[in-house]
Structure to design on (256 residues):
């Protein structure tokens, strides 16, 4: 599902030492649980939750994991993402790293999204990866209160609304907006407070709610039509969104 980015979630046991090694491709990572010490080129770095790091291909490094072990998400940035980081002035050859609240938030969201089952998980994960790249390349700046999204970004939102039930990806959305994927993902969340993947999932759940009231289709058929993998998957998402199960919603029962 995520082979394009070689996305991996790695769990490391407590106190485990990892011998010196190098990756055959550039790698970005976010630590979502625990802590560890990494040695890169003779320098020691202490990583804790919310630490993001870039390691160029071929750079030798080793780790020693903390008393509670660690969980780390690693992915291979695509060539145009590397170009973006370079354009931002990120010193990639120095194996840069950063720790900030934004990386804790993005790491938690990515970790939760990987566990989802629906066809929008890939879109949501891709959006979060792009947000990580954007945050790594430049400091996040808050949107001024009352500032309206630019016309191109409103068109992106409209595009997602129009294609919410289709298997669209960020590359297609960015191409339609004539913008870079990283820029689209970052600005969408900055202005609308939600990622493109999260919006698509919300729209899909709302469409399921509409069909439950306006059609006689079975709940399983509604689930499949709206992109959910199963009846139970729709139930989980539906309860999270509306506080009731699809059958309770259809019958008009109040939330528990």
């Amino acid at each position: 599902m995520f082979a394009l980015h070689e996305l991996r979630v790695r769990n490391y046991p407590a106190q485990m030492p990892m011998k010196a090694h190098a990756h055959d491709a550039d790698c970005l990572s976010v630590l979502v649980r625990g802590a560890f010490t990494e040695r890169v080129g003779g320098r020691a770095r202490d990583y804790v939750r919310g630490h993001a790091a870039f390691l160029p291909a071929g750079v030798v490094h080793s780790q020693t994991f903390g008393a509670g072990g660690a969980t780390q998400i690693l992915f291979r940035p695509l060539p145009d993402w590397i170009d973006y980081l370079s354009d931002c002035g990120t010193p990639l050859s120095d194996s840069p790293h950063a720790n900030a609240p934004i990386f804790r938030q993005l790491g938690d969201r990515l970790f939760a999204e990987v566990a989802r089952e629906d066809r929008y998980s890939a879109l949501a994960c891709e959006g979060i990866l792009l947000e990580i790249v954007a945050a790594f390349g430049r400091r996040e700046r808050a949107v001024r209160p009352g500032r309206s999204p630019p016309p191109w970004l409103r068109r992106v939102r409209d595009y997602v609304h129009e294609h919410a039930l289709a298997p669209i990806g960020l590359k297609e959305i960015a191409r339609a907006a004539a913008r870079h994927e990283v820029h689209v993902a970052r600005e969408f969340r900055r202005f609308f407070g939600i990622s493109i993947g999260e919006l698509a999932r919300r729209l899909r759940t709302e469409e399921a709610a509409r069909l439950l009231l306006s059609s006689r289709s079975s709940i399983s058929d509604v689930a499949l039509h709206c992109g959910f993998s199963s009846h139970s998957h729709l139930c989980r998402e539906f309860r999270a969104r509306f506080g009731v199960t699809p059958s309770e919603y259809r019958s008009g029962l109040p939330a528990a």
Summary: Residues 53 and 97 are 4 Å apart (CA to CA). DSSP finds ten helices and seven strands in the chain. Residues 8-99 form a domain with the Jelly Rolls fold (CATH 2.60.120.10).
